[in-house]
Amino acid sequence: MPSGPAMLLGSFLLMVATTTVAQPRGQKVSRSRWIHRIQQGQCSYTFVLPEPCLPEPEPFGSSNSLPGDSPADPPPLGDWRSQRVRQLEKVLENNTLWLQKLERYIQMNLKPELTQAQQHMVQNQTATVLELGSNLLNQTTTQAHKLTNVEAQVLNQTSRMKAQLLEASLSTNKLEKQLLLQGIELHQLQTRNSALETRVLTLETQQQAELDDIRDEKERLQHLLGRQSGALAGLERSLRAASSNSSLLQRQQRQLLESVQRLVQVVAQGPASAIKAAEQMFQDCAEIQRSGANASGTYTIHVANVTKPRKVFCDLETSGGGWTLIQRRENGSVNFQRNWKDYKQGFGDPAGEYWLGNELVHQLTSRATYSLRVELRDWEGNEVYAQYEHFQLGSEGQLYRLSLSGYSGSAGRQSSLVLQGTNFSTADADNDNCHCKCAQMLSGGWWFDACGLSNLNGNYYSLHQHMRKLNGIRWHYFKGPSYSLRATRMMIRPVDL
Ligand SMILES: *[C@@H]1O[C@H](CO)[C@@H](O)[C@H](O)[C@H]1NC(C)=O
Ligand SMILES: *[C@@H]1O[C@H](CO)[C@@H](O)[C@H](O)[C@H]1NC(C)=O
Ligand SMILES: *[C@@H]1O[C@H](CO)[C@@H](O)[C@H](O)[C@H]1NC(C)=O
Ligand SMILES: *[C@@H]1O[C@H](CO)[C@@H](O)[C@H](O)[C@H]1NC(C)=O
Ligand SMILES: *[C@@H]1O[C@H](CO)[C@@H](O)[C@H](O)[C@H]1NC(C)=O
Ligand SMILES: *[C@@H]1O[C@H](CO)[C@@H](O)[C@H](O)[C@H]1NC(C)=O
Ligand SMILES: *[C@@H]1O[C@H](CO)[C@@H](O)[C@H](O)[C@H]1NC(C)=O
Ligand SMILES: *[C@@H]1O[C@H](CO)[C@@H](O)[C@H](O)[C@H]1NC(C)=O
Ligand SMILES: *[C@@H]1O[C@H](CO)[C@@H](O)[C@H](O)[C@H]1NC(C)=O
């Protein structure tokens, strides 16, 4: 900074010196002045220097005259010389003085500008430096800020990690403690468990022994039970026999009473209408037989709850007689392809082929216990029978379901009719146990199961056409599934004939 003005001053002084040295051949502006112009930047400086006057030979002793070259009257050589030196000194002194003055002037005039420039520069530079400094400071502060932020974050992280570590160590401690406690508990449980196991083992052995005892006891009890149930069955049987005995007695009493009343009437009316009146009161062929008839044939019965009297064929000879025929096939004269209503009410001719009717049979068999006898004849002249100790037919609401028991006879080692619960089906009333319609497939009306081993109401086939007929008159355990029989009879009578 100070180098600027110093250099300026230095160059100026050099100029002055040069001017001084060039003095003898200097430019003569005026008689007495030397003018120097100096250009420095915008400013130009003009210096007017006085011409160094070397006086014409003057008398010695003049103080400000310099010794000339004139050797006109040469003084003594030493004097001249010293005079000359003095003159020169004076000039020099003058010059120096002037120079000093000049300097002072320069200093006076230039100083403000210089200082101004200086100040300007200083200010400029100071400003830039300040700017730089502030920038630096800004950067530093931002860096420092960032640094502190980072430091804070690091500190935060470290503190958090420390906290986590602490927590983790705490939780591990807790876990270890829990593990220890659980281990202890486990041990205790194991010991308790082993104790329990031993107890269970002992209990098991005890229970096994008790179980064996109980099993023995049970066997003994079962033995006893078997004996007692046998005894019970015997008792039941005798009870049933006794009750049937008593009902039989009652019935006989009633019949006797009726007979007495009828006899009284006959006696009152005379012998002509005696037999007719008696006939109309008979319920079945057993009563007819009891009244004294001994020839098989067509009779009239009057069943309670059935409005009209009915003609039936009575077999009063076979196996003690008293049989009311409910079905007969013998020559195919009657069509058995009938609907539900026909099978309910009955059809055909009592002297030939006929079906007595489900409703009448239901009424008969629900007021007393009846037996059923089925008689079969094949085309080779063989005759067999199947007898059922008990026979009962349900109501129409029960679809005339069949109830049989006590099979015996020569028509096969077992029954070709399902004994219990088979409903009656006709072509228009499918009550069988088949997805098909047995009555439509096999013809007639029957207690079809699915579709069962028999059908005595099937199509009638004559001789030579009777083989391989699935819809004929079948009885499986007599002639197999496809043999159509020649003649059949179904007949019932009370058990207590
Ligand atoms: C110095 O110079 C000035 C003029 O420039 C002159 O007037 C003066 O007499 C001189 N003094 C001497 C001692 O020479
Ligand atoms: C002073 O600064 C200005 C910019 O601020 C610049 O243009 C100028 O040249 C500077 N002057 C000096 C003498 O440094
Ligand atoms: C510091 O720098 C920021 C941007 O880097 C700027 O916004 C702010 O004005 C600066 N401050 C100064 C004093 O220069
Ligand atoms: C650490 O920083 C989170 C946000 O990142 C703040 O919620 C928490 O208070 C700070 N913790 C400390 C100890 O500074
Ligand atoms: C049933 O009565 C007959 C005589 O009618 C008799 O012989 C028989 O012992 C009686 N049965 C019972 C169990 O009383
Ligand atoms: C049937 O009864 C009549 C008398 O009414 C008798 O003459 C006849 O021998 C009896 N027949 C038989 C088979 O018992
Ligand atoms: C017969 O009819 C009487 C009343 O008329 C009735 O109480 C009885 O239940 C009927 N019996 C049968 C088997 O339908
Ligand atoms: C079938 O038998 C009945 C009675 O025995 C008889 O009236 C009828 O004419 C016979 N029909 C045929 C086709 O033999
Ligand atoms: C007969 O019909 C009755 C409905 O009246 C039914 O509940 C029963 O299961 C039937 N019997 C058979 C063997 O299908």
Describe this structure in words.
Residues 56-80 are annotated as: Disordered. This is Angiopoietin-4. It comes from Chrysochloris asiatica. Residues 1-22 form the signal peptide. It holds the Pfam family Fibrinogen_C. With 497 residues, the protein is α+β, with helices and mostly antiparallel strands. 50% of the residues lie in helices and 15% in strands. The chain is built from 8 helices and 13 strands. It has helices at 3-21, 77-269, 274-280, 285-290, 340-345, 358-367, 438-442, 476-479, and strands at residues 33-40, 43-50, 297-301, 310-315, 323-329, 347-348, 354-355, 370-377, 383-393, 402-409, 454-455, 474-475, 487-494. Strands 3, 4, 5, 6, 7, 8, 9, 10 and 13 form a 9-stranded antiparallel β-sheet that branches. The protein is rod-shaped, with a radius of gyration of 82 Å. The model is unreliable at 1-30 and 57-71 (pLDDT under 50). The structure holds 2-acetamido-2-deoxy-beta-D-glucopyranose (9 copies). One 2-acetamido-2-deoxy-beta-D-glucopyranose (NAG) binds next to loops.
Order of helices and strands: HEEHHHEEEHEEHEEEHEEHE
Helical segment count: 8
Arithmetic mean of pLDDT = 84
Largest sheet: 9 strands, antiparallel
Distance from N terminus to C terminus (CA atoms, Å) equals 166 Å
Keywords: Angiogenesis, Coiled coil, Disulfide bond, Glycoprotein, Secreted, Signal
Domain Fibrinogen C-terminal: 276-496
Coiled coil: 186-224
Protein name: Angiopoietin-4
